[in-house]
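User: Here's a chain of 210 residues. Predict its fold as tokens.
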Amino acid sequence: MNRITVCSIVATLTICLAPSGNAQTKNVTNASNAPTASSTSSNEAAKYSDDFLIGPGDVLAINVWKEAEISRIVPVRPDGRISLPLIGELQSSGQTPKQLEAEITKRLKDFVADPSVTVVVQEIRSQKFNVLGMVTHPGSYPLAKPMTVVDAIATAGGFRDFAKQRDIYVLRHDPSGKQTRLPFNYKDVIKGLHPEQNVELQTSDTVVVP
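Assistant: Prediction complete.
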């Protein structure tokens, strides 16, 4: 077989085995729809804003650079305090992670040269909302991420038979202790009517399903 014939056969096989344009387009489309690592990381980071206030039950990861014996994961006790080696007990409830970092750094200076402290909220357990009434699983749930009334009902397992879906309301307390009742008509909201009723829940909100 001469050289020209061999080249012709190789060229023919290359054309036959090459992926079609449609397959390439499909792969590109799927890749563009897939979530990226960077987007996932940003979503996780967004859970804890700079003004987040630590509360009882939250789990904190406290890291002191090059001081493994001091670094640890600690839960915030019901009294709002935590305990750390060398510095003992300190109040963490009501502080932001940055404020707590500064306080720990200040106290460690008597024991560690130029301490570098990082405080990360690993689990939010202090912020909760309640769902009561005609839902499958009434109870208290952690408010670890933005949650609307519709989200809360889904989290509680949805409605039970004979639930009055037009007469739902949210009970909310303002800082002065005054209670506000926010109406929520599920039938209207899922039709795209009155979307303003599907409010984002705040700590201690109670969704009542008659």
